[in-house]
Amino acid sequence: MSIRAIDEAPLNAFHRKLTWACAGGPFLDGYLLSIIGVSLIGMSNELHLTTADESLIGAAALVGIFIGGLCFGAVTDRLGREAMYTIDLAVLVGGSVLSVFATETWQFVILRFILGVAIGADYPIATSLLAEWVPNKHRGRLLGVLILAWYIGAAAAYAVGFVLAEIGGSGTWRWMIASSAVLSALILLMRIGTPESPLWLVNKGRTEDAQKAIERALDRTVPTKELLAASATEQSLQQHGFRDLCRGRYLRRTLFCGLFYMCQITPMFALYTFGPTILGSFGLGDGNDSNLGSALISIVFVLGCLPALRLVDRIGRRPVIVWSFALMVLPLLVLGGGSSLPLAVVVLCFCAYALFSGGPTVLEWTYPNELFPTSIRATAGGVATSISRVGAAAGTYLLPISLSTLGIGVTMLIGAGITLLGWLVSVLWAEETRGRTLAETSALPATQPTASAGERRAKLREDEYEGS
Prior knowledge:
Helix content: over 70%
Oligomer: single chain
CATH topology: Growth Hormone, Chain: A
CATH class: Mainly Alpha
Largest sheet: none
Distance between the termini: 24 Å
Number of helices: 20
Strand content: under 5%
Shape: globular
Radius of gyration: 23 Å
CATH superfamily: MFS general substrate transporter like domains
């Protein structure tokens, strides 16, 4: 059972505002992770940081994202999307402000860890809220927009870092960090007043609150009978918990979401790191110009996502992810030729990979939100994020070791192998969810209630409502 007022609603100002507000979390992720790398130069000079200090500061946020995604998705399913939606942004604002005044390594490490936890928590919070508010036919595209925000945030950080460094040199590093506090505060203001997810409210039996939320956001009156029927269906389904992600069909879906995410992001982080070396050949790899080059890399990946945004709702999720992984393998195999390749071929392969990677990229948060029911939707999204960060951390840590010991050619072939694993996982486990309601995409055959059972529950609830 679904809520037709949401599933069939035309896109309006509320949907656009909600999409931008939800995209603020990934934007801040890209910005915060990138701005610290830009500011570390000035920070190290002024605070006399060692290499170990810099590594701790850089890794703290990644560890925090892992913890935040793993833990706070479940909290969101328990307490609601609306409350967590603003709390985690308030933490980002506070942590960013305190970072401006930090003077010791341990202070930066703790604050970066806290910021990482808030970012990791925001992924399942914001994506589940958006998924439960947008119409079926636009869900894939709008959820895909969120991942674009990450690259835009990273590009913005490098651009801001470039401008500030040009104006005041590396001594402007505190201003760079302060910029993240300002952006976090602006996005927090955008989020204030967002109504709770009607599906979450219905799942908790709060049909009157769901009715008010829909009227407020969409200016549409939902018949009480429809909400009671939706609530009855939700209540007739088993209310799942964290352990259900490790059982039966949901285990397969958990592994699929986590593994394809990890297989997509691990080689991508490697190429993201290798990118400045490529651009260095064009004079954009030294000094402050490297920040401009890194911004250009982010823009290339943004451009790669644009075709996929249209295709996921036009031809479907499964063909997009399967064909994208298959095509992503090809440029990595060519790059396996190593440093002897002509520069033009290297740049062409880099651009081809960025273009083809758009498919899995825009589905990183679509699949977890579509394949799991309301009671564990945010939990599943958090777990998928945490699994992916294992790959991201491993790729970031092992890349320089692999480059120095195995060479660039073998390193790229390893990336091709990881990508091929992502293709295999997608061929075996990717499901088609295009154009279907969240109730349909998340239901399992063994747990779907019979029509008569759902109708009996709905009738009982309706009778109780009319008799009260």
